[in-house]
Amino acid sequence: MTKPFAIAIHGGAGTILRDQMTQTLKQEIVAALTQSVQAGAKILEAGGDALDAAVAAVKVMEDSAHFNAGKGSVLTHEEMVEMDASVMHGAAMDAGAVAGIRHIRNPIELARDVMRNSDHVLLIGEGAEKFAFERQYEYTEQDYFFTERRYDQLLSMKEKGLFALSESKYPDDKKYGTVGAVALDSHGNLAAATSTGGVTNKKYGRVGDTAIIGAGTFAENGNVAVSTTGMGEYFIRKTVAGDVAARMRYLKEDVHTACETVIQGELKTMGGEGGLIAVDAQGDVHFAMNSSGMYRASVDSRGELTVKIYADE
């Protein structure tokens, strides 16, 4: 008997406004989410590993200008792109992460290589890129990542002296633009992958929850895989992904209860806006958010494809 597989993805959570979302933009975002989740599902259908499926899904979003990761990353105060990413495989709870990446097209692939081909979990900045180039990664100029939309956002934030978005020109300007994927493969492996460009106008080499195992990414076979998106500093302080897994492990909560308790509980009370995606050992998928929307999609254990944007869908 074939064991079930499932995959879920997110393209960021936050304030996503219907009245500013054009039909054309919505169609483009839905198409990108669909392409992403199907890229991962194709690997799972062929009997592939959960982590490879999650990475393939995230890579599609890194290659799209619609998401704050890879090509669509926001700009730092110095008008640079600095990206973070992490992965975790649930079988042996192996993990890899990178932070402050400037010249690698797909940081999620580099995070997987850190897990598989180094003795470390987290590499940063120049050291991470040196590791990448030793593994024959292509050097990518900053021009590749530059988009007018992100430059406009940066100028707006600089004028206000902010590093978060206080008013919206685009329907998702107040969205925390992490992307991620969680997967269960037919061998029972759980895995998670998360990638981001961080926050607009960030300074001092700021790193959010995406690169932090247990905060933005977590996977444990027989339990759950989690990828988060939101206000990174809060998600680090509440170790959100690890907290969901712990509630399921020790309190025996189901994936739905654990996710909602964490996202709607103390995290929300302390001001932490955002969401997460999770899949348990049976292929049960859950999306949780305390914001007005989250770009998300899944192919569940029955093979059904779902794509949604707003919280009330």
From TrEMBL:
GO BP annotations listed: proteolysis
Residue(s) at site: Cleavage: 177-178
Residues at the catalytic site: 178 (nucleophile)
Residues binding substrate: 206-209, 229-232
InterPro entries membership: Ntn_hydrolases_N, Peptidase_T2
Alphabetically ordered keywords of this record: Autocatalytic cleavage, Hydrolase, Protease
MF GO annotations: hydrolase activity, acting on carbon-nitrogen (but not peptide) bonds, in linear amides; peptidase activity
Entries under PANTHER family matching the protein: L-ASPARAGINASE, N(4)-(BETA-N-ACETYLGLUCOSAMINYL)-L-ASPARAGINASE
Protein name per UniProt: Isoaspartyl peptidase
Species: Vibrio thalassae
Species lineage: Bacteria, Pseudomonadati, Pseudomonadota, Gammaproteobacteria, Vibrionales
